[in-house]
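User: Show me a protein chain along with its predicted structure.
Assistant: Here is one chain, sequence first, then structure tokens.
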Amino acid sequence: MERNSLHQFTDKLGDVIRKSGRGILNRDEFGKGKGGFFMHGPNADRFFSAVEFLLRNWVPLSGGYAIKRYGSPAYHSEQIHF
């Protein structure tokens, strides 16, 4: 994947999150053919609803997944596959 394409998507994702007011894009990590976005907000369901369309329609994420966590990592979580 081209770095430029990745940076463009990260910028778009950050804009959607900022405009939604439902959380923040904390960081992204990519290397060795894998990567991830780290995002959080006060309500996992509301946050995910703000970014779901963008994530589901980004072709490089096809076959990937998101994890919605309800509280700290020790609490309930839900994995959503794309």
